[in-house]
Amino acid sequence: MSKQDYLKNLCTPSGIIAALAIDQRGALRRMMGEEITAEQVSEFKTLISQDLTPYASSILLDPEYGWAAAGKRDKACGLIMAYEKTGYDKTVKGRYPDLIDNASVYNLKEQGAEAIKLLIYFDVDEDQAVNQRKAAFVERVASECKAEEIPLFLEILTYDSENDDPIYNAKVKPHKVIGAMKFFADPRFGVDVLKVEVPVVMKYVEGFGDEVLYSQAEAKGFFKAQSDATALPFIFLSAGVSASLFQKTLEFAKQAGSEFNGVLCGRATWAGAAESYKSQGVKEASDWLKTQGKQNISALLEVLERTATPLKS
Q1: 93 and 150 in contact (C-beta within 8 Å)?
Q2: How far is CA 2 from CA 140, 151, 262, in A?
Q3: At what angle do helices 128-148 and 166-184 cross, to 10 degrees?
Q4: What is the pLDDT of residues 59-90, one digit of tens each?
Q5: Would you say 19 and 58 are in contact if contact means Cβ atoms under 8 Å apart?
Q6: With 90 as the cut, is the pLDDT of residue 134 above it?
Q7: In Å, how far from its chain's centre is CA 58?
Q8: What angle do helix axes 243-255 and 294-307 make, rounded to 10 degrees?
Q9: Is 74 exposed, middle or buried (0-12, 13-18, 19+ CB in 10 A)?
Q10: 279 three-state secondary structure
Q11: Which helix (H) or strand (E) holds 46?
Q12: Fewer CB in 10 Å around end: N or C, the chain?
């Protein structure tokens, strides 16, 4: 199969990526309590896969806890596998990425992956030596994907290496997100799909929250600039916001003229099930997924069909 064939398998019939993300590892442990076992993490991911993949075009999992879940996904649902270790070494400046020790693109594909996802933390304004090291890292993974003829989804999480103030970071976020997309759109990185943040913090957009950092016109301008920054397909991550806010964000992006191609949506779809699992157990979590979770993903699909731009075949 070609990369295009794999990408088609990951989309809805109309060509939109409506993917469910449950590759969280460190973040999931923080949500559910550090005492959670590896078996419980795997069990929770499996619940999400069996209950929600009938409504998703594909699912993103991780090889550390996700193979059981991959086996329980709906037969029409494609499989994307994460390749990076969770988190980064906080004792070293630079937020450098690393790969899962026993994984390779070859063996992930051999076990059924139809695309590879690589996450990288990136500050376009950081020291050149740091960013060159990250660039080489992405190039190596892209070479693996090219050799195996499997799509590479690059997830970019932006930050400011010198300032962690939330208001400051919200103000510079459009520059950081758009700059990172332009950087990794270079053909040498071999990226097939960019998985990116929206270019603003929506709670600071006029009409979306109490504190305003961007007018609606400014925010729409940033969404349009993001869309114009690359010819590569790109999809939005939900970044842990509520299901309602994420759906409103997609509507706003469409109004702004953004030609995004879908989503890889995680906590905005299934976060409530994590609390149910932690406090009440498997049955309650499954009940939540079959009701509220189904409602969340069905509403998201309806919004996507109206707002997202189909991939070019």
Answers
A1: no
A2: 20, 9, 21
A3: 50
A4: 999 999 999 999 999 999 999 999 999 999 98
A5: yes
A6: yes
A7: 12
A8: 0
A9: middle
A10: helix
A11: helix 38-52
A12: C
Q: Which residue, among 98, 20, 69, 94, has the nearest Cα to 294 in the 3D structure?
A: 20
Q: Which pTM does this prediction carry?
A: 0.96
Can you tell me the mean pLDDT for 250-279?
Answer: 95
Alpha-helical (H) ranges within 125-165 are: 128-148
Structure tokens at 153: 């989804």
Q: Which amino acid is at 64?
A: E
According to DSSP, residue 87 is labeled S
Averaged pLDDT for residues 18-26: 94
- CA atoms of 147 and 256, how far apart (whole Å): 38
Provide the token pair at 98. 């690393």
Q: With 80 as the cut, is the pLDDT of residue 313 above it?
A: no
Cβ–Cβ < 8 Å for 65, 42: yes
What is the DSSP code (8-state) at residue 299?
H
Q: Which residue stretches of 150-293 are H helix? A: 166-184, 216-228, 243-255, 267-279, 282-288
**In whole angstroms, what is the distance from residue 301 CA to residue 303 CA?**
5
Q: Which residues contact 130 (CB under 8 A, 6 or more apart)?
A: 93, 94, 96, 161
Using an 8 Å Cβ cutoff, are 156 and 120 in contact? yes
Residues 6+ apart with CB under 8 A from 77: 53, 54, 56, 57, 58, 59
Using the predicted structure, report yes or no on whether residue 258 has a pLDDT greater than 90.
yes
CA distance 242 to 179: 26
